[in-house]
Specification:
Elements (H helix, E strand, L loop, with lengths): L24 H32 L10 H9 L3 H14 L2 E2 L5 E2 L4 H9 L4 H12 L3 H6 L1 H12 L4 H15 L1 H13 L2 E6 L5 E6 L2 H14 L15 H18 L15 E2 L2 H9 L8 E3 L4 E2 L1 H8 L27 H11 L15 E4 L14 E4 L1 H10 L2 E5 L2 E5 L11 E2 L6 H8 L13
Antiparallel strand pairs: 1-2, 3-4, 5-6, 6-7, 8-9, 10-11, 11-12
Helix pairs in contact: 1-3, 1-4, 2-3, 3-5, 4-7, 5-7, 5-8, 7-8, 8-9, 10-11, 12-13
Amino acid sequence: MTPLLNTQDTTVQAMPQQSAVSCTDAELAARIQELETEMRVMMWEQLQYIAEADHRGIHTETTARSLQVWLQGLLNIDPRDAKTRVTVARNVEDRRSLYGETMPPDLPDTAAALAEGSIGLDHARVIVNGIRRLPDYARCHQVTEVESTLAGYARTMSPRELEKLAERIRYLLDQDGAYRNEETQHEARELHYATTRDGMTVIKAKLDRETGAKFAALIEPLAAPRPEIDGEKDPRTAGQRNADGFAALLDLALDHDGMPRTGGQRPQMTIAIDFGDLKRGLEVLGEDGMPGTLNTERAITAQNARRIACDAEILPIVLGGDSLPLDVGRAKRTAPIHIRAALLRRDGVCAFPGCDRPPGTPEAHHVQHWVDGGATDLNNMIMLCAHHHRTLHNQRWDITMRDRRPEFIPPPTVDPRRTPRPGGRALPAQHREHLRELIPAPRDPAGAA
């Protein structure tokens, strides 16, 4: 069999009609357009050869398992590009009947536009995929009309815009199928986030089209480049602008009254930091002091804590020398906001030993019931999740406070020895002292002896 293509290495030198540097602006633009048209026409010609190679099964004479794989190796192109060329070639080839008669391509308008150089390979790919995704009855009765419409608009639209139009047509002709696709996307939604070892948060999400549209509508204006200042453009990369826009979006959500409340409070970011360390940095330049702690239990520098405090509603929680909140009791049955904040600081979402319940709405529980004279203060209250709140009452656990920390005593049915179990999440006080040793001693003021 005579080879279809000569795979030997050949060198073709083409002399430009005119040097690019000698062209006027108009001539440059015209020549760029001419070359694009010529390359598209040559691509259409290549597609005819690919289709013929497909009919001959030329790849079967090699070790390639398919025409796509053979073409990928022959041209040194990506698998997706090879697949696109094979798929389009099969739909725009000049066909022959068994009697040698010329038959129009499956997609004649697309083939004509390719042959003219009016559209490119990506346009053709969009048209082919758009036709394939039509429902069966539309492919039988309306494919000519749809293909003509898409090929016509492809002459003036980019492939991306044409893809949107193809989808609109599919939604129009197959509304039931489109609805099923949307429901499938909704079921496939997911969002994952994790904190890396260096404290960064990594977010990975796949959103259905409705949620994605909401996200784009909110993030795009917040991530827009800043206006030029004295001729200097926004130095941030697109990724940085998106991250800053997402941060601004979170700030707006935190400030919104419609956000669901947790334990009677709106969602909020909290920073626990020694007041002396916070104040010291404001008075002495370069004195950062002890780092603070975010509600994610990750550290934050006093310097950044001070920056956040410049534009934040500050709710002070006074800590003792052992890092525990001091008593700020109130003669009310329901724990007010500042008491709940202190309880969350000490106990987390649930103080019960080994609680593995997912975060929810925690409940402030009186150790000594309020109607029995128990005070609404830190020494008489603990934070519990709903599950362990019920467990506490149903199994009749006892609670004592030791060094202002809750201690849980199980009933005999759980532990016959009733060995106390410490609760809460507060870090040991000695951690703070260990960190203190790492802070360098303050430098003497300049000029001091």
